[in-house]
Design goal:
This protein is 24% helix and 26% strand. By secondary structure, it is of the alpha+beta class. The chain has one domain: Sandwich (Jelly Rolls). A hairpin with a 5-residue loop joins strand 5 and strand 6.
Length: 195
Amino acid sequence: MNRKKFLRLSSASTLSVLAASLFADGAVPSPETYILQDDGRIPNSRYPLLVYRKAFTTTGSTGAAWLEDCFATNNWTNSWRNGVFPYHHYHSTSHEVLGVYSGTALLHMGGEKGKQIRVAAGDILVIPAGVGHKKLKASQDFGVVGAYPDGRSYDVLRGEPGERPRADQHIAALPRPMLDPLTGAQGGVQHYWTV
C-alpha cells in the first residue's frame, strides 16, 4: 500500500471513530433547513440550505484542520480558509459547505429577499448551488473552511443581468453529492436533498 493511500485510510478510520462517538446515541445531527425562493436575480434552489448548529467543539486552527479532514473524508475537497464575501453571490457549478471555526457572523442567505442567519464557531452550513450568501457583519476573528463535493471548481456569480439561463442550466446539471460533508452517508443531503 502506498503512503498516501495509507494516510488517507488512517485519517478516514480516525474520523469514522470520531463520527461514531459523535453519533454514539444513534442520533445523526438534524440541521435547520431553509428553502429560499428565486428572487429574479439569485436563483436559489429546490434543495434546502442546511445549518448544523454546534456540530463540533474544537475552534481556531485545530478546528479548521478538523473541518478540512472531516470534509475530505466525505469527499468535499478543494478546501480553503477565509471568510465570506461582503456581497451577494452564488455558485452555479458546485454546491458548497462552510464550517465556522472561529468567531461569529451575520450572514444574508438567499439574496435581498432571503433570510439573515447568525452563525458562530461550531456551525456548518451546506449551501446548495444557486443559493446566495453574503456577510453582513462579523467578529474580527471570523473564519470559515469552505469545500466542494468531489473537489469541484466553483464560479462566483452576483445576480447580474445575463448570468441566466446559463447559470440555471449549470445548477440543474449538478448531481446531488453522494455524502453529506458532516454526516457522511447518514442523514444530511441524502435525507433533505430529495427531488
